[in-house]
Amino acid sequence: MAIARVExxxxxxxxxxxxxxxxxxxxEAVDVGSVLVVPFGRWRVIGVVVELAERSxxxxxxxxxxxxxxxxxxxxxxxxxxxxxxxxxxxxPARGLSLVLPPGAAGGRAARPALERRVRLMPAxxxxxAGATALGPRQRAVLxxxxxxxxxxxxxxxxxxxxRPETLRRLARRDLVSVEDVERRRxxxxxxxxxxxxxxxxxxxxxxxxxxxxAALDRSGGSPELLLHGVTGSGKTExxxxxxxxxxxxxxxxxxxxxxxxxxxxTVHRFQARLGDRVAVLxxxxxxxxRADEWRRLDRGDARVAVGPRSAIFAPxxxxxxxxxxxxxxxxxKQEGDPRYDARxxxxxxxxxxxxxxxxxxxxxxxxxxxxxERIELEGRATGAxxxxxxxxxxxxxxxxxxxxxxxxxxxxxxxxxxxxxxxVLAGRRGFAPHLVCRACGRGxxxxxxxxxxxxxxxxxxxxxxxxxxEPVPDACPDCGSVSIARVGAGTQQVQDALAAAAxxxxxxxxxxxxxxxxxxxxxxxxFEREPxxxxxxxxxxxxxHDFPDVVLGVVVDADATLRFADFRAEERTFALIAQLAGxxxxxxxxxxxxxxxxxxxxxPIAAAARHDAPGFLASELERRxxxxxxxxxHLARVELAAAAExxxxxxxxxxxxxxxxLVAPEVQLLGxxxxxxxxxxxxxQLLLKGDERRQLVEPxxxxxxAAGVAPGFRGVAVAADLDPQ
Length: 726
Ligand SMILES: [Zn+2]
Ligand SMILES: [Zn+2]
Known about the structure:
This protein is α/β, with parallel strands linked by helices. The chain has five domains: 2-107, PriA, 3(prime) DNA-binding domain (GIY-YIG endonuclease), CATH 3.40.1440.60; 114-184, no CATH class; 204-377, Rossmann fold (3-Layer(aba) Sandwich), CATH 3.40.50; 389-432 and 490-625, P-loop containing nucleotide triphosphate hydrolases (Rossmann fold); 635-723, CATH 3.30.70.600. Helix content is 31%, strand content 23%. The protein is built from 19 helices and 30 strands. The strands form seven sheets. Strands 11-12-10-13-14-9-15 form a seven-stranded parallel β-sheet, with helices on both faces. Strands 16-26-25-17-24-23 form a six-stranded parallel β-sheet, sandwiched between helices. β3 and β4 form a beta hairpin. α15 packs antiparallel against α17 (614-628). The radius of gyration is 30 Å and the shape is globular.
C-alpha cells in the first residue's frame, strides 16, 4: 500500500507531523513535494508530502485518504531544504515548507498559468469566405480579419469587438475556425537604469577569477566556497555573469542572490541582457501571476538562472551548479520574520547538497566570510580608475546646527556646479530631527506604545519609526508649559535643507519615506541621473549598488551614527558603509573624492576605510572577535518573548530561561532575560545564548520552544528564536 507522510501547513507548534495518509491509485502521481488537501480531524487542511512509504505504523483501516492534490508542488530536494531551515532556525516544518512551495500553493491556490484564446482560420473558413457557405455579417468580418493573419493563430483579443464568444463558438462548430487556449507568459517589467550593458572584455584579474570558478565547476564532488573580493567597481558582476554562462554551458543551473531588488536593478538588467530568456526574476514586486510564471519556467527548466533577493535561494533550479551571493555583507540576506533564516547559510547548505559552487562577492566582506571562504582577489577597478581620495573631517567642537556641514564639505559641494558633477550624501536617520527636548524641564517625547523617541518629520508631525504612529508637533511642553522646545540631531530632511542652502543645486532625497511607494525608488534615482549636477541625500540606501558615472563626491554626514549602536557588528557596519559610499564615487573618467565627517577621526573602522584597507580592517576585526569570543569564533542565538501583559511575560521569560538552563551544555553562556523596548504596545524580553557550536544552541532552543508551545504560562506570549542574529 502507498502511504504519504504529510506535514500539515498549520502554524501551531503543538501539532507534531508528519501524518500518514493512504494513497489510492488515483493519486499515483503524488510524490514528495506534492501539495494535498487532506482531512484533519473535522477540518480540511493543506499539507505537503515529505515522504512516501510502503507501510504505516498506524492500523491501515484507520488511515484516511487525501481529498485532492494540487497540480503544483515543490521538487523533493527543496522539501528537504525547507525542513532543514525549519530545524536549523527553530521554526515549524510548516513555516519551512512554505518557503519552498510554488507561489500561492501554501494557501491552497497555486496561481494558474494565464491562458490566451487564439483563433485560426480553417480551410473550410477560407472556402466560406470565397462564397461556398452563407455567413452572417459578424462571422464574415471575423473570417476576413483572420484571413489577414496568413494562417497564423490570432489572439482573440486582437479581433476586437467582433470576436464575441458565441460568434467564435458557432464558427468553430462549423469547423470554419479553430479555437485554442494557450499559455501566455506574464513577463515582469524590467527597470533598466544606469550604465547600459555592452560587450565587456574581461581584464586579466577577472579572467583569472572566472578561471577559478570554472575549475571549481569542473571539480567533481565537494562544493567549493569562494569569496570574490575586490574594491567597488572592480567588475564583480562581470565575473558572476561569466560564471553563470559557464554553468549553463555545462548543463547546470544557477541562482544569483542580490540584496534587494530595488537596490540592484542594474545587476538584474545585466543578467537579463546577457542571458535573455534563460533568466527568471523572482521578487515581491512581481504580481502573483508573474511570480507564478517565473517559478514555473524555472521548475520546467525553460529558465535556468534565478535572480532575486534572499527568497530566491529557494527557487526551483534543477541541476544546480552555481550560487552567487552579490554584496554578501548586506543585512537584507537575513529574514526578519519566522523562520529567521540567513540566505547565506541556506545557500551554503543548498550548494553542499547539490555539489554546486558558491561564490560570495563583496568589497567589504563579513569577517566570517573572510575567515571561512577560499579567497579570489580582483585587483583595482575594472576601468582602471583610481579609488577616490578619502578625507576624514574632525567635527568636534562645532556648535549645533551650524556645524552640520564642515566648511570643506560646503566648499566641495559648491564646486559641483562648476565641475558639472554629482554628489551622494549619507545622512543617519530619516525625518527632520530624531529627538525633541523641552529646554526648560528636559522632557522628551516618546511613543506611548514603543518606548522610543518620536522623530520630527516634515510636514510637521511627530512619528514613531516602529509602529508608524503620528502625533501633532507640540506648541508647548505639556509638563511645564515652556514654549522653548529643542530639536536634537539631524535627519535626512534637515540635511537636505542644509545641502540645498550650501550648494544651490537640485537635492534629491532617497529614504524609506521618499521611496515608500512602489516604483518611487527607481523614479528618484532616474531624476538624479537626469540632472547634469545634483546631490542625492539619504539613509544607507544611497550607499548601495548604484553606478552613476558622474558622481565625483561622496559625503558621510555623521560617520559615528552606526558606531553608536551597541552591537558587536557596529565596527564592521561602519567600515562597510564608508567603503561602499567611497565605491560610488569616481566611477567615470573623473577622479572621486569622499569626505567623512566624524567625532571619532581615529576610530579603527573610519581610519581603515580612509586607507581603502579592507584586508587590514578585517584582520584586526577578526583579532578582536577572537578575543571577545564573537562570531565566527562562537555562535549566538537570541530568544525573544513578547506579550501585552508584563507580569505574564516576566513569568514566561523566567520559565523559559530555567528550561534552557536545564537543556544547554554547561559551557554555553545564557544571558537574560533582558528587557527590550516595547513595540506596538507589547512588552518584550530577550534571552541570549553563546556557544562554540551551533548545534549546542539549536537543539536546546527547539526543545524549550516546543515545550513552551504547550505550557499554560505561555498563553498570549509570542516566542521566537533568532539564530545568528544580526
Ligand atoms: Zn518642559
Ligand atoms: Zn510606536
